[in-house]
UniProtKB/TrEMBL annotation:
GO terms for cellular component: cytosol. This is Peroxide stress protein YaaA. The lineage of its organism: Bacteria, Bacillati, Actinomycetota, Actinomycetes, Propionibacteriales. It comes from Nocardioides kongjuensis. GO terms for biological process: response to hydroperoxide. It comes from the Bacteria.
Amino acid sequence: MLILLPPSEGKAVPRRGQPLDLASLSSPALTDARRDVLDALVTLCREDPAKAAEVLGLSAGQADLVERNAGLPSAPTARADRIYTGVLYDALDVASLSSGAKRRATSRLAVASSLFGMVRLGDRIPSYRLSGDASLPGLGPVAGVWREALPAVMTEALGRGLLVDLRSGMYANFWKPGPDLAPRVATVRVLHEHNGTRKVVSHFNKATKGRIVRALLEDGADPRTPAAFADVLRDLGWTVEAGAPGRTGTQFDVVVSEL
């Protein structure tokens, strides 16, 4: 099973650590694309900070993020599971997982990344700022770079297992599993039910996805089909409703009433 997570916009900033070594990251087939995106981002932030702030969607008070991007090649790194923060990652709380769950997290979790395409939790990366909808001068939309570079890498990473795709729409544009993989793809939507009305609420969605991933890792189950995945979630206490299988996989609604 491969569980694909969205990145967080906010990231922890390591105070010490070795500088970025692209060759040391998992999925070395992405090294050239990673270098292209990194070089374009660093060049923009060094040569035209004002333009960089505009491209990155930053306010005047976030100039430090442009400066941080400019120094990425020499910035200290840390494991990806210590870099990504926010509601989903707080709920997942990798640091407090049991030893067995931590081993499973290393092999089963991957994070979509605008800068690196896809990273594993043990990959050492710096803190950066780059949204999935950004377009960099001389390179173009980063989503386009990853649509070209990711398909073979993701297919290899998935192997013969089940893909649990928890990415948001922006990052789902980086790579979309083809119809041949659809029978092994499960996506999850979290619905908050209150007074008989259901709706998607970002905070509930992120927190619940983090808790689902944590529960799956602690349980250790390794479902091979979307239907088996839904059964595991139900056994773990979640209310799950299945959609019809389609060309992109099967969507499951997890219904929650409390955070």
